[in-house]
Specification:
Pfam families: HATPase_c, HisKA, PAS_4. It contains nine helices and twelve strands. It is of the alpha+beta class and 335 residues long. The chain has three domains: 98 residues, PAS domain (Beta-Lactamase, 2-Layer Sandwich); 74 residues, Helix Hairpins, CATH 1.10.287; 148 residues, Histidine kinase-like ATPase, C-terminal domain (Heat Shock Protein 90). The strands form three sheets. It has a five-stranded antiparallel beta sheet with strand order 2-1-5-4-3, with helices on both faces. The chain has a five-stranded mixed beta sheet with strand order 7-9-10-12-11, sandwiched between helices. The chain has a two-stranded antiparallel ribbon with strand order 6-8.
Length: 335
């Protein structure tokens, strides 16, 4: 199938041009498309998400690539991938968009995810039993163990818990990919969300010897699923703790950003290696930060966080330099 090419006004997001392939695929005439925006032909009503793509282009990104669900005039839908690039046309900036139907790719991904899900479910049940039994031993259910046995049981408990988290992460990814994960979008207080993230890691913060601070800010309300937002923020704080040097500070902040609320987590670790950044939000991605502290983790947390935030109509990103890394999440603000 030929690629669909569309040209969009970066200010209004209205279409200025569509090639024959795009016209045939969508079913609208060129005149009709010139009165429409990407929100009219996708299952994505959030203007803010498209504005974020434009912002990235204006800030110097050579292009942005994103996936969505294309909606035709007949009501039929199909998964699509779009590549946006900011170019000049007759002296004015426009967005050149190349769109591909990725139905076949998504079907292959669905089959793969289904297989992984079945395997993960089969692993989870015995794993919970093993972890529970080990924790009982660790708690003295079989009496006082010799010191060598105590160390081995503690090692088994740590690693069975780590494996349980990995299996749960894989199941979360499969639920997101299959559209079976549910979101209860409601009005949430930004300060309370940051507070819960900080409270969840109080013990780890003390153990790591770092300071975790919430920057004071005005009352801000955002729209999100409380449980999923807590999961994302917990992942960001956990990552910051892994790389923050002893004696440093991790800062949690909230601020208004356009039509959204920005939540960010800043640490003062080594920074993200340049060579790793292109695959940062991919599954199982982990960077070698050349530090002595064991990092652990599955490499799935940020991939899950990105997909969850996007499902809630927001965006996630980061900035990094030696000695400072800042992760931010932007979610729709309550009007």
């Amino acid at each position: 199938m030929s690629e669909e090419v569309l040209v969009t006004d970066p200010d209004t997001l209205r279409y200025l041009y569509a090639n024959g392939s795009a016209v045939r695929s969508l079913g609208y005439t060129l005149e009709q498309l010139r009165t429409m925006t990407p929100m009219d032909v996708t299952h994505d009503p959030y203007r803010m998400r498209f504005d974020n793509h434009v912002r990235k282009l204006r800030e110097g990104a050579p292009y942005v690539v994103f996936e969505g669900v294309r909606k035709r005039i007949t009501g039929d839908t199909c998964p699509m991938e779009a590549r946006w690039q900011l170019v000049s046309s007759f002296g004015r900036p426009v967005i050149l968009s190349v769109v591909q139907d990725i139905t076949q790719r998504k079907e292959i991904e669905r089959m793969k995810n289904e297989f992984v899900s079945v395997v993960s479910h089969e692993l989870r049940t015995p794993l919970i039993s093993i972890h529970g039994a080990v924790k009982l031993l660790e708690g003295g259910a079989a009496g006082v163990l010799p010191e060598p046995a105590t160390r081995l049981v503690a090692l088994a408990a740590r690693n069975s818990e780590r494996l349980r988290v990995i299996v749960d992460d894989i199941l979360d990814l499969e639920k997101i990919a299959s559209g079976r994960i549910e979101f209860n979008i409601e009005s949430l207080d930004a300060s309370a969300a940051l507070g819960r993230a900080a409270q969840a890691y109080e013990t780890m913060v003390r153990t790591a010897g770092v300071e975790l601070t919430i920057e004071p800010h005005d009352a801000l309300q955002l729209k999100a699923d409380a449980q999923r937002l807590d999961q994302v923020l917990a992942n960001l704080v956990s990552n910051a703790l892994k790389f923050a040097p002893q004696g440093s500070r991790i800062l949690l902040e909230a601020s208004r950003e356009g039509s959204g609320v920005r939540l960010q987590v800043t640490d003062h670790g080594a920074g993200i290696p340049e060579a790793f950044r292109a695959r940062f939000f991919r599954r199982f991605a982990q960077a070698d930060m050349n530090t002595s502290r064991p990092k652990g983790g599955s490499g799935l947390g940020l991939s899950i966080a990105k997909q969850m935030i996007e499902q809630m109509g927001g965006s996630i990103g980061y900035s990094s330099e030696p000695g400072r890394t800042c992760f931010h999440v932007v979610l729709p603000a309550v009007p």
